[in-house]
Amino acid sequence: MFKIAIVGAGPAGVSAASRLLKATANKNHDEFHVNLFDRSLVPWGLLRTGVAPDHPEVKHTAQTWSNVSDFPNFQFYGGVNISDLKKAGIKSELSLKELLDCHDSVLLCNGAYEARTLKIPGAESRRVINAQKLVGYYNGDVMQDWDLEPAHLQGNVGIIGGGNVALDVARVLLEPALLKPSDVSAKFLELAKEVHKISLFIRRGPFDLPCTTRELRELIHLPSVSNVIINGLDKPLGESEEYAKLMKSRKVQERKTKRLLKLLAESETDKKSESKFGKGKTVEFNFFHTPEINYESSDKISVEFSHRGETKRRDLSALVESLGYEKTPVSEFITDVNLDSGKAFAFDRPIYMSGWALGGAKGVVGDSTESSRLAVQSLFDDIENGILKSLPRKNMSSIEHSNWENWKKIDEEELRRGQENGKQRDKILSISEMIKITE
Ligand code: NAP
């Protein structure tokens, strides 16, 4: 029997656990015992705390793995932080070395959750809000601080970045009422009622926009949005030579950009004509805008951008920084990481990595589960080749943790409260309340 520890109960971690346990159940491989660790008391990682509330179909993919607990060789260690760095406020912690002492190997699926921040003067202003915090707020993430001020989320909110997180935040801020039946946190709905304009500031041009077509379409097609403005270009997007060239291209690898830019170029024209009929909300894309300095006053933040050698100043109620995430390695002793196979070493022992922990913060749920499939295959190969061996290991039993039965109690309570309040789910918003429910 191989004892495997998986760190992180997001899609990468739970899909890997499910793969190992199914291999055991189907008797088509060695027997595995899986201990799944997460610093949170509850599973699903970004499916629960990152995916926007108006994407329930993505959140529901968690159901694919909800039966992991039915396998006899599975144990969930919720509230256990695996890191060489001690972190306050979390129930228990183990280092990677301690984890390896108790298991034959470790599969790291701990994501990448260190949000990038602006390094400009004035970035410490309370009106500069990190997207991670805002996403945590609307998703009821108990691992985030909850100190947003209502006055900051109204009028014209600026967002730095053009990735899918920026677009999620824009959508959620512009149309919070649509989220009422979802699992959105009620506190957030109170906060974000008065935003009428979102200005996205993107440091590169439209041809390098990192978001995807679906997310862009959802934003500009929001019922209340009647103005789409594109600033920062020499001429309208649809009239540029580069655009004309792209539209003529038959290259398969350019198809995605082609769809994205066609949508963007056409939306500007479409929405302009619609806006004649009514006063709606506005989405503004400012390309080639790099933030340089912020000045906060009592009722606004003024942001200076450099735009092709010129300085432009904008007054906003808040500035959301949505700059992506850095990897968050659990240990400094991880070496020889192979980005293709997910193989690595720690303390001269083979370990495995997948999802954002391996490749950084990019891609959707399917990319993370595919990355886990490859890492589990590497683990199978190493067993076959005698590189990974099952040996007597130390016992794990004494570590304080929250188990899967506790999660089921929290889950049931959230669903019950949701039903009571006409929502898909009403999340428990503090660790202490979660613990009370499990007692
Ligand atoms: P991202 O896609 O990496 O976008 C980050 C944005 O921040 C980029 O526009 C980047 O500009 C900009 N940026 C970074 N540092 C900056 C700085 N110092 N100053 C100004 N701009 C800066 O990150 P993300 O939006 O957080 O998304 C992370 C991953 O999650 C992506 O793969 C995304 O597709 C995925 N995701 C998917 C969904 C979905 O499928 N619905 C939803 C959310 C997230 P440059 O491009 O110039 O670097």
Overall description:
With 439 residues, the protein is α/β, with parallel strands linked by helices. 32% of the residues lie in helices and 23% in strands. The chain has helices spanning 11-25, 45-49, 56-59, 96-102, 131-138, 164-174, 186-191, 213-220, 241-248, 255-274, 356-359, 365-384, 404-420, 431-438; strands at residues 2-7, 32-38, 74-78, 80-82, 92-94, 105-108, 114-115, 128-130, 154-160, 194-202, 225-231, 281-287, 290-296, 301-307, 310-316, 318-321, 325-326, 334-335, 343-346, 349-353. A seven-stranded mixed beta sheet has the order 3-2-1-6-20-19-18, sandwiched between helices. β13 (290-296) and β14 form a beta hairpin. The longest helix has 20 residues, at 255-274. The model has no long low-confidence stretch (mean pLDDT 91). The chain binds NADP nicotinamide-adenine-dinucleotide phosphate. The site of NADP nicotinamide-adenine-dinucleotide phosphate has 22 residues, from α6. Residues 116, 160-166, 168, 202-204, 208, 210, 215, 322-324, 361-364 line the site of NADP nicotinamide-adenine-dinucleotide phosphate.
